[in-house]
Design a protein that fits this description.
Blueprint (H helix, E strand, L loop, with lengths): L6 H8 L5 H21 L11 H16 L6 E4 L2 E4 L12 H11 L10 E2 L2 E2 L1
Antiparallel strand pairs: 1-2, 3-4
Length: 123
């Protein structure tokens, strides 16, 4: 299946043009993110018919992978230090909030128990 978002949309988020190996990795990230989004949501075989939220989540996951391909959590050089939250997924993994949004699109919100009665009493 085609990715739920295209390279042009990812480039717009990143603010730079993707070329060569970086473009190939971004295309793979879009394909991986689309597969995860579909796994938690619906198949959406036609990307043009996918909900905006699904496309946005696909782009967010792919963007995380492109911006931080090695999955670093922190870096330090001299007095400069930068650290990402431990709760932020690395690679194309989805956040808990993104998964909840996708599940809400499908109407799947949890596991339920329904009492059943038959022939004079509960089973």
């Amino acid at each position: 299946m085609s990715p739920l978002a295209d390279i042009a949309a990812l480039e717009a988020r990143l603010g730079w043009a993707l070329v060569g190996q970086e473009r190939a990795q971004a295309e793979a990230a879009l394909a991986d993110a689309s597969a995860l989004v579909r796994a938690y949501g619906h198949p959406w075989p036609d990307p043009a018919r996918a909900p905006d939220v699904a496309v946005s989540i696909t782009l967010a996951a792919a963007e995380r992978r492109v911006r931080n391909p090695e999955g670093y959590r922190s870096e330090m050089q001299g007095s400069y230090q930068y650290q990402l939250p431990a709760s932020l997924p690395s690679g194309v993994a989805l956040t808990d909030a993104e998964i909840r949004l996708l599940r809400s699109l499908t109407g799947a919100s949890g596991l339920y128990s329904v009492p059943i009665s038959g022939l004079g009493g509960p089973l």
